[in-house]
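RECORD TYPE: inverse folding
INPUT: structure tokens
STRUCTURE:
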């Protein structure tokens, strides 16, 4: 049985009671507060392992509570539980540091326990990552003092040549004024299919190269499985983005990514793709989802089409990838 302590900040006494009974039966220690100020005081005195917080609270709002918690207890996971499904509310909660966002009513309470366990596991992983990060910091500092090394690593973020498939050709062009905040990657598989990726890093200036290299290393793991015949995730790029998003959100990488991932059948021209963020665009009518690395539970939309006479173009800043049918 778990001995983890959970603080519930919820002004709806009925719903709060349901949560308290359920979590107590699952072995958690539960502390409850009916308003934000009481919740903040209990956080300071009880030091909970996880906080569950509503957005609409008396006296001070849930967003204010979240902001104060991140300032005073930055490593404590906070799960927002709210009746609001507005994307603006979700984005603001995540921007302020919420680890997860659940929408009321919770039809199945085991969803809540799953979210709590994810937060606890992520907290443990981040503690271990933080220890490793301190060891890496000195190496990273040396790396970014070496201009020639930055230039070399930037070159590795671009393909070295175009790709020719039975029905089309894939080429890329890097804009002269684009900085080292862009990854372009494509791979051919034994069945004449290809994975095409363009990603833009939102890391702080000077950290883009390392952020994109981390993303590329995560991609390479999926590509290796695809080369071995396990390409189910690659064939559904929305699943690939969900996998990458989970990895990034559970790490200490302080960057979000705008990205397009596209799976192409090089014999028929059939395409499946997914896109997130606003800095990378496709010249097809498809909606962009939330950027990677912002919300761990984000889901991404699937888009599909067939390559026609007009080339498909993926673009970011002045750079682009073009997939064009062969005559």
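DESIGNED SEQUENCE:
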């Amino acid at each position: 049985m778990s001995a983890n302590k959970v603080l519930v900040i919820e002004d709806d006494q009925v719903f709060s009671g349901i949560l308290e009974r359920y979590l107590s039966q699952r072995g958690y220690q539960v502390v409850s507060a009916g308003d934000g100020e009481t919740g903040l005081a209990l956080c300071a005195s009880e030091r909970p392992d996880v906080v569950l917080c509503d957005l609409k609270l008396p006296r001070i709002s849930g967003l204010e509570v979240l902001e104060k918690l991140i300032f005073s207890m930055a490593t404590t996971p906070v799960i927002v539980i709210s009746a609001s499904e507005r994307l603006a509310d979700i984005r603001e909660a995540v921007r302020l540091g919420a680890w997860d966002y659940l929408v009321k009513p919770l039809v199945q309470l085991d969803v809540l326990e799953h979210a709590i366990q994810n937060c606890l596991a992520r907290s443990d992983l981040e503690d271990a990552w933080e220890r490793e990060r301190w060891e890496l910091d000195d190496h990273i500092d040396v790396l970014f003092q070496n201009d020639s090394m930055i230039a070399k690593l930037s070159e590795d973020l671009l393909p070295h040549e175009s790709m020719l498939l039975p029905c089309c050709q894939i080429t890329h062009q890097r804009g002269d004024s684009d900085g080292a905040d862009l990854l372009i990657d494509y791979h051919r598989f034994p069945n004449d299919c290809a994975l095409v990726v363009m990603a833009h890093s939102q890391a702080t200036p000077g950290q883009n190269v390392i952020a994109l290299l981390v993303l590329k290393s995560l991609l390479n793991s999926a590509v290796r499985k695809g080369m071995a015949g396990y390409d189910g995730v690659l064939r559904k790029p929305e699943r690939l983005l969900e996998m990458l998003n989970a990895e990034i959100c559970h790490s200490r990488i302080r960057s979000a990514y705008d990205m397009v991932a596209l799976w192409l059948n090089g014999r028929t021209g059939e395409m499946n793709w997914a896109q997130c963020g606003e800095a990378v665009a496709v010249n097809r009518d498809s909606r962009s989802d939330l950027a990677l690395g912002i919300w761990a539970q984000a889901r991404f939309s699937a888009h599909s089409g067939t390559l026609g006479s007009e080339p498909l173009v993926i673009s970011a800043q002045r750079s682009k990838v073009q997939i064009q049918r062969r005559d």
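NOTES: The first strand starts at residue 5 and ends at 9.
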